[in-house]
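Reply to dn_fold:

You asked what the input looked like. This is it:
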Amino acid sequence: MSGSTVRNERHNRRLTSWAVRTTAAAGVAALALTGCGSTKDSGSAGTSGGGTGKVGVILPLLTSPFWQSYNDYVPKMAKSEGVEALKTVNSNSDPSQQITDINNELNQGVKGLVVAPLDSAAIEAGLDQAERKGVPVVAVDVAPDKGKVAMVVRADNVAYGEKACKYLGQQIPSGKVVQIMGDLASVNGRDRSEAFRACVKKNFPKLKVLEIPAKWESDTAASKLDTLLNANPDLKGIYMQAGGVYLAPTLQTLKSKGMLKKAGQSGHITIISNDGIPQEFDAIRKGEIDATVSQPADTYAKYGMYYIKAAMAGKTFKPGPTDHGSTIVKLPSGILEDQLPAPLVTKDNVDDSELWGNTVK
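and this is what came back:
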């Protein structure tokens, strides 16, 4: 949901964040409704707009480099997918405003909606409004707890937490590590936190997990990390669940305490993040952090447009592998989710030209 500059930090309560390796252009361009596997056209299921009509796109916020990049990709991907997308709407980190935004778009007569939910539970009210008007919705980055959506376009957030756990566990034989968590009202925050905690317990029993519930708020992360470091100056590792929000305050806090040591130096604290933004890549190159998990701003936009066009045409999908390197799964709620891959980025592959974070300034 990416140093990183975050305005109005006190309001960033629902940033979900997010990362992944983009699929090679030739591969993603070839996704067709009549493709193989789970992306095969399963027939019509009550068409809404015959695949045409205006589409509303609602963002959770624009104070994160990740969502700024996603916002930039939306018109490009809409054009490439043949979707008539309206100008994006920014809900400014306010779940209630997001419901209002959905209603406003519906009143404008949109035939489809692509929404990045701020709150997994609160979004149900907006989804119900859309369903009553027969307007299909595709959710990006966050899966709703309830409500009807045609598809969730999202990376596997459980994998985020597990990859962070395994990376730290392989680098740190024993000692204290902290996870700076997202908002647990968001399924993303829950998935990352629970997966990291469970993985450490199972695979690295010599690590002691400390936790900072930061609610996707950079100022909260900085304040609580400062307090934690006062009590735990022997901290060995940090997992930041959203680089877009936590990168800058974490580095600033460590620097203010004389604890920001570069990789290879004595006293270096091993740090892994989530998002895949350019600022994280720069920090990896400088040795300030060690790794991140790259979340796909570009393919979030691409497949958000792809699936809303399909939904407007009445197309449906089935669980299984796709032809663009991902897997569609059925969530416990019954909703389908296209889980895009999320590669680990370290100093060894940080300059990979296929990573979207290397394609933006």
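The mean pLDDT is 88.
Hope that clears it up.
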